[in-house]
Amino acid sequence: MTKVTPTSLADLIRRPIVTEKATLLLENNQYVFEVDPRATKPQIKAAIEELFEVKVTGISTSNMPIKKKRIGKFIGHKAQYKRATVTLAPEFTINLFPEV
Questions:
Q1: What per-residue confidence (pLDDT) applies to 1?
Q2: What is the DSSP string of 25-59?
Q3: Is residue 99 included in any domain, yes or no?
Q4: In this structure, how many other beta carbons lie within 10 angstroms of the beta carbon of residue 91?
Q5: Quick one: pLDDT at residue 99?
Q6: What is the CATH number of the domain that holds 67?
Q7: How many domains does the chain have?
Q8: For residue 63, which phi and psi values (nearest 5 degrees)?
Q9: For residue 7, how many other CB atoms are within 10 A of its CB?
Q10: Which residues, 6+ apart, have CB-to-CB distance to 88 below 8 Å?
């Protein structure tokens, strides 16, 4: 198992992904995050449990493909990223939308 230092845990989780599908997954106590492409499932689990103080029961990851992006006559691409869907134990939640 890979040793992860607490200072690098925050670097593994980049941001939560808030899309229509990700919002529907919240009902099943599943949360979607963009993570570092080199992160492994045990590292992601350790990072989520440490940062949010929750119990993770499952993780599925997928590498999202590079998509072409055109702006005028210039053709480029969107960066590739890794998406992690994290399932929490029923008694835990993550507050992604804090009260204002």
A1: 53
A2: HGGGTEEEEEE-TT--HHHHHHHHHHHH---EEEE
A3: no
A4: 8
A5: 77
A6: 3.30.70.330
A7: 1
A8: -90, 115
A9: 7
A10: 29, 30, 31, 54, 55, 56, 57, 94
Is 60 a member of any domain? Answer: yes
Enumerate residue ranges in the chain where pLDDT < 50: none
Residue 49: which domain range?
6-88
Report long-range pairs for 93-97 (Cβ below 8 Å, ≥24 apart). 93/29, 93/54, 94/31, 94/52, 94/54, 96/16, 96/18, 96/26, 96/31
Which tokens in the block code for residue 73?
A: 């006559």
Would you list the DSSP string of 8-28? HHHHHEEEE---HHHHHHGGG
Residue 23 phi/psi, 5-degree rounding, is -70, -35
* 98: in domain: no
Q: Which of 44, 27, 38 is nearest to 84 (CA)?
A: 44
Q: Is residue 27 part of a domain?
A: yes
